[in-house]
Amino acid sequence: MALHEWTQAEGLTGGVRGPADAAAALAEIESRVVRCRRCPRLVEWRERVAREKRAAYVGEEYWGRPLPGFGDPQARVYVLGLAPAAHGGNRTGRIFTGDRSGDFLFAALHRAGFASQPTSERRGDGLELRDAFIAAAVRCAPPANRPLTSERENCLPYAAEELAVLPSARVVLCLGGFAWDAAARLVEFRPRPRFGHGAEARAPDGRALLGCFHPSQQNTFTGRLTPTMMDDVLRRARELAAG
User: What three-state secondary structure class fits 171?
Assistant: First the structure.
């Protein structure tokens, strides 16, 4: 189903008029996301991880549910990742929070002025995003960090709904090729543009797609993605959002 079909099916076109409406609509989407059980494989895995826990976090209560998007209802930049980490977002209840990928990302968002603080530890830690909203193409932690295509298709309507009620979102910043492909489906590219770090494409609806290597530990530890590279992409996202 295409973006306009998803949003029309949910009655989300044309009803958002300002920050209060957007915040209320996002809260309603969040309430449905956290109850979602569409994907049996993901439900089983996220809940098993939350029960068994990692030894370092054995005293913590895991979130163990799907993760809603998080950020500014007036965001011009929509950041799309792959999926929560089993002992990161699946533990803390916030996307890109509680793992090395998130440490790298939020430090960069803070340097770029998109985040009020350089760290993200858990829901309710005081972090606020400014002009940015973060979500994932798949909302549950997948085994081996590898969601199935069917699981992506089940989850994409949530991102479509978020974009429909974020009235100012003009840039979709895609962290990795999986997110890039998901975003290309959301904004109905034909044919889909090629992913690359710093890749740009203009969607039929006028939004800009911007590619960035995923801030995975493998990419950041090997230097495939450096802080400078991340800073440059975020600077470009702000430029595109202002244009």
Answer: strand
- Per-residue confidence (pLDDT) for residue 243, from 0 to 100: 83
Query: If you search the block for the tokens 């770029």, which residue do you land on?
Result: 112
Domain ranges of the chain: 3-242
Distance CA 153, CA 229 (A): 30
- Of 118, 116, 162, give the one whose Cα is nearest residue 139: 162
Structure tokens at 156: 């994409």
Residue with token string 């991880």 = 49
Cα gap 218→226, rounded to integer Å: 11
Local structure of 156: helix, strand or coil: helix
Both structure tokens of 83 = 């999926």
Q: Tell me what pLDDT residue 15 has.
A: 56
* E strands present in the chain: 70-71, 77-81, 132-136, 171-175, 200-202, 208-212
Alpha-helical segments (H) within 79-226 = 89-92, 100-111, 149-165, 177-186, 217-222
Report the percent of the chain where pLDDT is more than 70.
93
Considering the four listed CATH numbers 3.40.228.10, 2.60.120.320, 3.40.470.10, 1.50.10.10, the one that applies to the domain covering 3-242 is: 3.40.470.10
User: Does residue 15 contact residue 24 with C-beta atoms inside 8 Å?
Assistant: no
Per DSSP, the three-state class of 237 is helix
- Residue 233 near residue 210, CB atoms below 8 Å: yes
